[in-house]
Amino acid sequence: MTTSNLFSLKYMEKHLSQNSPANINNNIRVAELFAGVGGFRLGLERSKTTSKIFDVVWSNQWEPSTKTQHASDIYCARFGFENHSNQDISTVMIDDIPNHDLLVGGFPCQDYSVASTLKNANGIIGKKGILWWQIFRILQEKKDNAPKYLMFENVDRLLKSPASQRGRDFALILSSLNSLGYAVEWRVIDASAYGMPQRRKRIFIMGYKKDTHQYMTLKNHSIEEVLNRDGIFAKAFPVGEIDKNNITTREIESDLVDITENFNKQTPKNNPFLDAGFMIDGLYHTCKVITDYNGSTKTLKDILEDESVVPQEFYISEEDLGKWKYQKGGKSFERTNKTTGHIYTYSEGSMSFPDSLCKPARTIVTGEGGASASRFKHIICVNGKYRRLTPVELERANMFPDNHTLGVSDTKRAFLMGNALVVGVIENIGIALAHEINYDIEI
What we know:
The protein contains 13 helices and 14 strands.
């Protein structure tokens, strides 16, 4: 069955199910911001239960730096044009966004990305990071019709941004959501730690409006119960038992200007937010966690295509192999600061060459495509031949369907997967959330 036929069949099955008498009132209406090629949508649609179906009623994807909207085009090719907006979110009127129960999105992370130096990590006030305030605008202007649930994703460095005031940007997010009546859970999750085929560590953020079932769980259960068992993340991604003595509790300032100017100024190198936590009524509780997973694990060898279908251009010639070994190897050389003229030694350690087939893939980066030698691209050795990963293998590392990004160049397909998320993480969260929503959604 072709990819297009497979998507058509899934589309038919989904809508037949939603229009049946048993399920018509069980839909969880979803709005998807910064949709990319649809990772949130795929994960949520896979996580449907017998009683709850996630139904994307509106989506938005806009890339300001390019004339051709590759991600939006692929999104529409896979899911249809209906209720999809390819428009700068800052220009979208609130009345054009239908009411929904769950707002999701991986808001742009360039300002927080480890690909930038700390000096250039401008954080939430940066050009891309400012889009957080578009999320805030939607929630604020929706007023009583604001979604009861939120699900966001970003790079884990968000917890420490910016370098001069670690945690300030995340404190702004918590405070702004608190002002709108949301409780918040967060968790840094490495997909590979739960058996998924990529070592991709990201922060996931959940929000719950007052009087929802999960809000009351956070309010009425003990801190340890929420972090160990009763929170959405504890249910979706189990952790080892957390000792209450290892939990830090602090208050979040309500004045956003004061947070911007003064948060963590006294101890700017300390990290006020750890890998797991939750906030309710202006108090946050945070701690480190240890993964508790005993299931199977997918590795690089599990996601490889058969060598007979790998195009020749993905193989490394003997002539170019030395260039790749140099890029992957340790090196040290002098550099000069262009501003100050200061001379310093730049060093970087060696990386595995080739990448181990017995481990999950490393984090897929946007520069994964192209034939030029690179330190960060994957190189594998199969049957004595060295090669790069194909677009389908990159899709599998993110748990997307094969050829989901078909229709653009191989380099662009790699770029889109570097910007994507691991679908299985969203699927796990969606299953846990669907079971908790119960009677919160008004029919």
